[in-house]
Every structure is written in structure tokens, then in C-alpha cells.
Amino acid sequence: MFPAHRFLSLGIYATVFRMGRMLSKPLQGSLNLLILKTLNRGPLHGYGITNHIQQISGDVLQVEEGSLYPALHRMEQEGWITSEWAVSDTNRRVRYYKLTAKGKKQLFREQDEWREVTAAVARVLNFV
Amino acid sequence: MGLLNKLKNTFRRSAIERDASDELAWHLEQRTREYIDAGMSAEAACAEARKQLGNVTLIEEDTSDSDLFVWLESLKREVFLAFRMLWRAPIVTAVAAISLALGIGANTVVFTLMKQVVLDYLPVPNPEQLVILHSQRPEEGHTSSNGMDSSFSYPLYRDLDAATHNIFQGILAFYSINASFAAATDATETVHGELVSGNFFRVLRVAPWRGRLFTASDDQTPGGNPIIVLGYGFWKQKFGSDPAVLNRTIRLNSRPYVVVGVAPPQFYGTDVSYRADIFVPMCMKTDVVPTNYKLTDRLDHWASLIGRLQPGVTAQQAAAALNVLYPHLRDQDLAYMKSPSAEFKTNFAKKRIELTPGGKGFAGLRDQLSNPLRILMVMVGIVLFITVINVANLLVARCVARQREMAIRLSIGAGKAMLSRQLIIESLVLAALGGCAGVLIAYSCTPVLLRLLSFDLSSASISAHPDWRVLLIAAGVTFAAGFAFGLLPAWQSTRTDVASSLKNENSYGHTGGSVWLRRTLVVGQIALSLMLVTAAILFTRSLQNLKNVNVGFNTTHLIKFAVNPLQAGYSLPRIKSFGENLRQQLAALPGIESAAIATVPVLEDDDEGGDVTVEGATVLSGEEETRNHALRNFVSPGYFSTMQIPLIAGRQFRPSDLDASNVAIVNQTFVNHFLPGKNLVGMHFGRGSGRAKLDQTIIGVVADSKHSTIREQVKPFTYFPYLASDRLAALTFYVRTRSADEAVMPEIRALVHHVDSSLPINDLSSMSAVIDESLFVERSLGFLSIGFALLATLLAIVGLYGVMAYSVTRRYRELGIRMAIGASPKLVLSMVLRESIYLGIVGVLCAIPCVIASASYVRSALYGVQPNSPSSWLAAAALLLTVALLAGFVPAWNAARIDPHAALRVE
């Protein structure tokens, strides 16, 4: 049957990764973190962001492309990133995203949160 | 996202869309190239890239989803879709919209009235500062009520106003009047107006529309300021809004008055039930309302007072301060009283003034109508509730029928939230249709209702059209209703099981829940209808009781009319000769049996009375203040025979008694109250209490008859010869005719015109019409409650029929099997009918506690019926059960004719 749930209110489930299996709710929001972290290195286009995340994670994390652009759009609305257009060598318009100061703050905040959560999860897992 | 951005995006929409698609196109291109580099064919690479990215359009939309324009765009699409879906089921839509229209229309109509009569404030600035002053009754001396429950003497008013500047910005006085009005050459007509103190307009803060309004200096010399202010409506209607009316001289009660100004359009005076045509300064009182009392008489209580509080002063503070002053102000009144006893003086000094909120002004109608209007408001509220239930029921049913459609839409990617949203939008569109039709109904029905309620639209300041605030509320109600009945189907749709619906495994199997839902809704409908039907039965019975009340005189072939010769400037002797002359001429007309005169009209909510002292009688029962009270009327010879009030003992007034000031006739209640069991003929009594002279001889006793209202308990009553009265103003003629009343009326009119062409004839009507008019509240309540009950019952039938028909369809196979294995059609018929009756019974059982609990609410509007009398609700229950049976019959009949072969072959 057609996966109707994929279209259930995109706003809520937008940040879902493909990792062989779908990661579910606990990882929601981590797409933001990964995008912010990636853009922290310098301006990049959407395609580049997916590739970067995939390469660095050793193909473990694959950004679901359908979720990437809406996420970028929302982050832009939040003021965490800005975008500008450039022209590619194939004469295509390419949109580059860039981290703002506000986005940088957000990155640190999310990074801290993430570390906290993973550390907590690790503590639970390591408990014998 | 900020609104500004949203708006900006709205205008940049095409740019944003292009950006989004450019970006995605580039992404696809890059990805495709990557796959080709990895060794895929161009075609496969492109397909794979697309697959990875997913639904491009969806992403594009999602990328700009916070865009207002997109939102509006999708709303527009959804509204169009809603219209299409509604159009596809025209009958359901029509039934739903019409019943909604009736529900919303009825609410709008009643609320339009309710708002104006009960809720609206006077159209003046800061109406909340206004308070009404109430004096304690009874007052020594003469009191005329003016329809208000409180009155003050003019000197006391002036003292109060002068002494309370620290409490009030001013106290105004007014008195409702009727006067005969004649512009230069026209015939005279009776107009309604207000006699007002000089500060009236200043205290109310009303500004002139044309010319000027009164000031304090216009109200100084008694009889010295014959000036008049016209009401806006009267100015428009009578003078065609002619600005040249200023300084014109008109005649009021045959005296010249100068028009000085016109009041503003929205200002109707202090009583919303009568639009004041004219305003006259209070110093002209003895001219406009001729009596024997001078304006300066401290024992003549007549003026109604409204004060405007100083800013920051509360009504409680004002009342406290006022009551310190009040006894001192009233000390002077004592000097005018005949030898008051010490006990009287102490009691008199204890009299207090009470303040009540006056921002809504006085309204005779408000007291009379507020309770019935509240009852009606509840009734139309229930009707609306039933309507909403009915529509919800229809929509739930339709939703079941649309289950497949829902499943398909779910399966091709519609979210449940989206579906619910669509369903709610459909409901709102439906509600909007109903609401618009409802407002149209309200526009056309309010004038009808007003006429039904016997409002004289030209004189009342009640508008027949709902104003924008009422419309706003109607819109709110519509929206709430749409949401209310939209939620159920929306909730239902979210429970659709896609797979089984699509496979059509059991087209009704999943919706067992909805049957219960619909049954519950129908039970609610029946319960609410029962309440309305019970109310209708109660009000109808009450009206019937009132109509059957024995008023004590024969009301058929009896005509009444009134003339006011005093207003036309007649002297007392001339009034007397005029009265006798007209009475005899009337009696001589063919078709007229007899004619008589009374000074106080009967059954028109009017009375006159005072304390009496009866020879040898000491009354100890009853309230101290009304213990020795008796009403009185001054009547002509032949009054009792004309009215056909039976004589019990003694004799009627004879022509020889005509101006005898020492004879009286009393009623049976008078005898029973003062000297029960005694023969009073030949005994004496005196007017006044205490040491009054016993100068009246009782010459006869007549049977009881109702005097001021039909509802009243008959009170002790005394009749005196009218020619013996030392003050006569209005005379009411009662004419007993031989045959049809209408035929005689023109003759009477012609005769009065012949006797004095300048004398307006007022209220010429048959006595049964007078009684009908006095019952207008009960009549309209009865009529409307029947209408609402019928509407509710009809809606309940529709609802019940729908549920039963659906239930039979659902059980088609089951019933077929039952019949195949031997159930007779009769058995099936009774099975289905039983279900219908059960629903009816459950509804009735639910309603009975509510009926009993709300009984006290309607008690005050009933006459001679107990609100919780079982006979009423049993009758209502029987009616509704019959209706339930009828509504169930057609589906049951269909069930009984199921062909078992066909039923078993299904699927």
C-alpha cells in the first residue's frame, strides 16, 4: 500500500533519516543540527549538504532529500541561515546557504543538547 | 514567521516558486550526474535521482508553506471543493441549510427584540451613570402612576434636585402624556409625548438636531412657557423634515405652542416602547394634563425621576446620602396633610428612596416582555440546538456514505488532518449558507413578529431590522454551529479504515460506532423536542384559561371608545352635559341597545382607588397598607345593565341619583372583605381612613367583575355616579349593540363627530379586541411556542427517519436471513418499529427530569396551569412517541418487504 504516513503533516515528521532503518522521534531535530554544523565550515548548496553529511558519516547518515529543502527553508525563516544565488559552471542558478550569527548560537545550543542526550543515553546503555 | 514576511512573500510568490523549482532542478541535475558517473544509464540515473528526492511539487509547496497566499489559495480550493461536494447531495444540503436557516433566523428575530427591549441602553452618553429614583408607596394624597412604579410631587422633585448637587449632576423629571395635537390647519390627532423638566436634555446629554432643546429657564413659571420640542420621527413624518418648522405655532390641547427645536434621530425619550412625538416643559403640566391639582401641590405625586450620578459616586453612596436628606425634605409635606396621627408621622419619617440602574430608561414593555422574551430566547436556543444536532446527524450519515471516497483520498495521500479540515470547511460553508438564509428570514420575519406582538411600529422605537451587532452575533452563532456539527463527521472520518473500506469488505461493518452516535443524537433531539412541545402545551393551555376567564360581564356585542373633553378645553359642567347628551344619543341609535360611561376603563391595566372606612367593620387580615383599600370607578346610570354585571342586592343608579354625591354601589368582594355575610344595602362608609366621615350610603351590591386585568384577583370595589365627581377628564363609553359590532362603529364615529367635530375619538374597538390585546403577550407566546414545537418535532421526525432508514439498510442481509428462516414480515415490521419506539422512549425519559427542573422557569408566564403538571408532559410524550412510531413506519414497512432471495444474493 502507498505509504500514506509519509505525507502525514510534513511539518511534524520532516526530520527523518534513512539509515537502513528509519530513526524515529528521538532524532528529530538532529537534521537541523547536522545542517548547521555543515554550514559552519562555510557556504554550501543543498546538494552539497547531503553529500557532506553522507561522506563524513561514512554513509551511515543519509539525509532524506525530500525533507532537506523544507528544513532549509524553515531555518531560513528562523534567521539561522541566509541564502544567496550564484551561477554554476553549467549556467544553472545555484542557491548557497550561509550560517548567520544567530544560527551559530543555535548550533552551539543544539550541539550541547545533543551531547547531553547522547551522553545520557550512553550512561543508560552502559549501566550493567 | 512574522506577518510582514508573510505579506512580503505573498507578493513575491512567483519569485519564490521559481527559486524553489530552480534549486530542486539543480539538485536533480547534480544527483543524476553523480549516478551517471557511477555507471548508471542516463535514464536510470534520472529516475533514481527523482526517487531519492521524492515528490518535487510537495517539497516546493512545503518550502513555501508558511506563505499566506498559499494558505488562502488552498482555502479557496477547499471552499470550492466544499461547494461541489454539497452540490452533489442537493437534498441533504437543502434540508440542512433550510433547518439551519430556520434555527438561526428564529434566534436572530428573538434576539433582535430581546436586545432592544431588554438589553439596550438609552442612546445617550454614559448611560451607566443614570439611576431611577423610587419612592415608597402608598403616598398620602393623590398618586397617578404613569405606568411607572414610582412617582414624586413636583415641589419634592425641585427640592431633591436642588439639594443633591454633590451627588447628582442633575435629576430630571418626566411624565408620559397623550395630547391632542394640531398643526396649523390639520385635524387634531392624539400624540404621545413626555412632559419634561427643564434640565431633562442637559441631564441626559442630548444635543438638539434642529433649533434648541429646553433649559432650566424654560421650566420656571407654571403655565408660562408654551413651547415644544418635536421628536425626530414625528418631525419627519408630520412635517416632512421641514427645517422651517422652527418658531411655527402649533396647537396642543387647543392651546398655541411654539416649536423651538427637534430632538436627534436616535433619541426616543425615556421609554423604548413608546417613541415620544413631542416634549413639553413640565411647567405646562396643568395645561397639558388638566387636573384639579396645582403643579405646586405637595400631595399630588406623579413625576418620575432619573438622576445622573456625579463621576465617582456609586449608586449605594448616593442612596445613603439621599436618605439622610429625604426625611427633612418631606417634613414640609406633613404640613399639608389633614391631622396626621403620631404613628403616621413616625412611619412617614421612615420612608426611603431607593435607586435602581436607569441606563435603560423606563420601559413598560420591558417588565411585561422581558420574561416572555427570555423564555422565547431559551426556546429558540433549543430549536437551534436541535437544528445543529439534526445537521450533525445528516452529515454523519453522509460521511458514512462517503466512506469510500474518504478512503480513496486517504490512500492517494491526503492526511487525516487534511480530510478533517475539508469536512469542517464543508460544514462551515453549509453553516454560512444557512446563516445567510437565516438572516434573510430574520429581516422578513421581524416585522411580522412585531405586528404579532401588537407593537405599533410607527409609535414604538423598536426597529424591525437586526442591526450590525445582532448580525455579528448571528454570524458568530453560525460559525459556532458549523463548527459544532462539523466536528462529529470530521472525527468520524479520522476513524476510517482505509483497507477494509477500499476492499468493500463490509461496506457498513466498520461504522457500528456511527449508528450509536446517530442514535444518541436522535435521542437528544427527541428529548429537546419534548421540552418544546411541553412548553407549547403549557402556554396554549394557559392562554385558553385566560380566554375562558369569567370577567364578570358579557363581552360579546360590547364596544368601547374614549374621548377626552377636558383635553379639548371643556369645563366641568360642559363635560357633564356633553357626556349625558352623547350617551343618550348613542342609546337612540338603531342597532344599539344601551350605552354607559365609566371614568376608568375596564381591562386596560388602569385603576384608581383609596382607603375607605366602613361602618362597623374592622379588617385585620391582609397587608396593613392595603387592608382598607378599595378601588373605585365613576359610572353613568345604566352601566351595570349595559355591561350585564348582575345586581345581587339593592338597586342600580337611577337617573335621580345622577349627581348625588352620597350614594355608592359596591361589589361582592367588598362585602366579603369588610363585613362578610352581612347585607350592606343601606349601610354607610366613608372615603379616607381613620376619622373619615361616613357619608356614603350603599344602595346596591353587584357581582364581582375583573377590573384592570384578566389575571387579577377581584378587589373590593366601589362605584359612584360619575356626574357627582368633581373632576372628570377622559370618559370611556361602553356600548351594547344588537348585532355585529363592526356595522355600528362608523355610526358611532359619525355621531361623535357630529356632536363635536374637534374631539378626537380614541380606541374605538370591540371589548373582545380589548381583551385580546390585553393578552397579546400570552397569545404570542402561545403562538410562537407552537411554531417552535412543530419545527422541533419536524426536525426530530427527519432525524429519526434517517436513523431508522439507515439502520434497516445496514441490517438488510440480517433481516433477509431472518425472513429466509421463517420470520414473518409482521415480525420484522414490529422489530424495526420497536427500535424506533425505544429511541422515542429513551428520549422521553431523558427529557422528563429536564422538564420538571425547568418548570419554575416558566411559572410566572402561566395562568391556571401548574408548570410541572404531568398531564402536560404526558400529552407531549404521547405526541412524540406517536411521531416516533410514524417516523419508524416507512423504514419498517420497507424492511418487511425485503425479498430474502435478493438479500442473500448481495455480495
Question: Can you put this structure into words, describing what you see?
Answer:
With 128 residues, chain A is an alpha+beta fold. Chain A has helices at residues 10-13, 30-39, 46-56, 65-78, 101-126; strands at residues 17-19, 21-22, 44-45, 62-63, 81-87, 93-99. Chain A has a single domain, classed as Winged helix-like DNA-binding domain superfamily/Winged helix DNA-binding domain (Arc Repressor Mutant, subunit A), CATH 1.10.10. Chain A has five helices and six strands. In chain A, helix 2 crosses helix 5 (101-126). With 907 residues, chain B is α+β, with helices and mostly antiparallel strands. In chain B, the strands form four sheets. In chain B, strands 3-4-9-6-8-7 form a six-stranded mixed beta barrel. A six-stranded mixed barrel of chain B has the order 15-16-21-18-20-19. In chain B, helix 2 (13-37) crosses helix 4 (56-63). The two termini of chain B are 54 Å apart. The chains are: A alpha+beta (128), B alpha+beta (907). The interface between A and B is medium-sized, with 27 and 34 residues.
**Overall pLDDT of chain A, averaged?**
74
User: What's the number of extended β-strand segments of chain A?
Assistant: 6
- Rounded Rg of chain B: 37 Å
Number of domains of chain A: 1
CATH structural class of chain A: Mainly Alpha
Largest sheet of chain B: 6 strands, mixed, barrel
Strand line-up across the major sheet of chain B: 3-4-9-6-8-7
What CATH architecture of chain A do you see? Orthogonal Bundle
Distance between the termini of chain B: 54 Å
Number of E-state strands of chain B: 23
| Oligomerization category of the chains in this entry | heterodimer
Strand content of chain B: 5-15%
Q: Percent range for helical residues of chain B?
A: 40-55%
Helical segment tally of chain B?
Answer: 29
Would you summarize the structure shown here?
The complex is a heterodimer of chains A (about 130) and B (about 900). Chain A has about 130 residues and is of the alpha+beta class. Helix content of chain A is about 50%, strand content about 20%.
